[in-house]
From TrEMBL, chains A, B:
Residues 7-68 form the HTH asnC-type domain. Pfam families: AsnC_trans_reg, HTH_24. One of its GO terms (molecular function) is sequence-specific DNA binding. This is DNA-binding Lrp family transcriptional regulator. The lineage of its organism: Bacteria, Bacillati, Actinomycetota, Actinomycetes, Streptosporangiales. GO terms for biological process: response to amino acid. It comes from Streptomonospora salina. Gene3D superfamilies: 3.30.70.920, Winged helix-like DNA-binding domain superfamily/Winged helix DNA-binding domain (1.10.10.10). Keywords: DNA-binding, Transcription, Transcription regulation.
DNA sequence: AATGAAAGTTATTGTTC
DNA sequence: GAACAATAACTTTCATT
């Protein structure tokens, strides 16, 4: 189920093109990768069915939504049992400022990506939604100056192909 | 240019629906938010023209691409002038393992999200692509156990609407 | 600014190679 | 597995309210 999918050069070109612009028309995508539209549609459907493509999303500008200040919060959680972690995860995902949550190795168990209106609302979020909770023993805050998206993600070079 | 956009309840419902599934047909999206397809198309175009929606992307499963091990690298960079930072950024974005890069406040200047084949290739990436560079003075590595996506991002509550 | 209908394109299917 | 041709569906425009 979670084994790597077998992907030929056409699949890789499709994945690369779609990660650059998921709104390409199937007709345009087919021309870009060099196959017929029906073939291209077949490949894209297979990429979804095989779980390589898990979904489609829009990129929004948080500043345009009135949330120009973004930050990462690094959260240390006390007992660290599932019974306590699950409600914590739900609580974090329930905050309207939350853009993403990661469970990490290391001293800081969780990392939260948040987008806020200003420094004051960020402070209020940290104090009320995180520090105030019993299982949270420490919150570290790093503001985001700038973000760059990575190139399209492709499989590692296999050497032989 | 970077002021928040003025968004009415229809815009907010569109943004919410599209962030859940950007592949909704315009017809379906219109029905979901309760307006005519032509009106809906108009709204979506305006959201793009105003810069609220910046692009469309596919979500891929890194494990299915043969990159099941993901990590965040926290990088301390020495002199920290633009003349040295720009080549560093280009270098990081040029790595096929890089999924994202952030410039942060705090002691660790940069955070890199990477997806690798296994622990060995992660080690090789850290040593060859980061530690080996002159401007890099320290690299901290945290593996990712699990990731949760946030809910659709919407503007802060304004109180009056 | 939103609607409804008409025209133009596209997605999608079935068939053949 | 890929390409072609035909149908069904959608997107997009425009005149109207």
């Amino acid at each position: 189920m979670n084994e790597p999918a077998e992907l030929d050069p056409v699949d890789l070109r499709i994945l690369s093109a779609l990660q650059n612009n998921a709104r390409l028309l199937n007709k345009e995508l087919a021309a870009t990768v060099g196959v017929a539209p029906s073939t291209c549609l077949d490949r894209v459907n297979r990429l979804r069915e095989s779980g390589v493509v898990t979904g489609y999303g829009v990129d929004v500008d948080p500043a345009k939504l009135g949330r120009p200040l973004q930050a990462f919060l690094y959260i240390r959680v006390q007992p660290h049992r599932s019974a306590l972690v699950d409600p914590f995860v739900e609580h974090v995902l329930g905050q309207p400022e939350t853009r993403g949550l990661w469970h990490l190795t290391g001293a800081d168990d969780f990392m939260v990506h948040v987008a806020t209106e200003d420094a004051h609302s960020l402070q209020r979020l940290v104090l009320d939604a995180f520090t105030a909770r019993e299982e949270v023993t420490r919150v570290r805050t790093n503001l985001i100056f700038q973000h760059w998206a990575g190139r399209p993600l492709l499989p590692p070079e296999t050497g032989t192909g």
